[in-house]
Amino acid sequence: SYQRFADCYRCFYKLQPLMTRSIYDQFISQLQAYIQEEIQEVKEEGNLELLLNSLDKIVEENENREEPAWRPSGIPEEDARSAVVPYLLKHRSYLRKVLKQKEEENGKVAESVLAGRERIAELQQLIQARKRAWQ
């Protein structure tokens, strides 16, 4: 405040009260300009305007949300488990689906291999029969 400023420079204030007021006004205006400049630099360096806008957007999107937002419980093991377990369950169901597909593919391949072996055995018998007939 001006009164505090005048108290700090009491001797000068007693001699030149108008000059003290003028110095105070200049000091305040320069200080405000400097602070605004510093804030603008911080905003530009940290890209704060974009980040704050995205934060506002997130807040707006979640205003009508009925369930409460996730908060840490304070126990790191439980927090990690609550974050990791759903992912692992989802991944497990995906892996089971892939495994089922691969087992089906393997079954089909095994059937074709058995059919191929049977055909080879038939052909070998046919070859043996023709060989005996030719001899």
UniProtKB/TrEMBL annotation:
**Keyword entries, A-Z:** Cell cycle, Cell division, Centromere, Chromosome, Kinetochore, Mitosis, Nucleus
Which terms does the UniProt entry file under GO BP? cell division; chromosome segregation
Gene Ontology CC:
MIS12/MIND type complex; nucleus
Q: What is its main location?
A: nucleus
Subcellular location as annotated: Chromosome, Centromere, Kinetochore; Nucleus
A Pfam family that the UniProt record links to this protein:
Nnf1
Recorded hits in InterPro entries, A to Z, give: PMF1/Nnf1
Can you say what this protein is called?
Answer: PMF1 factor
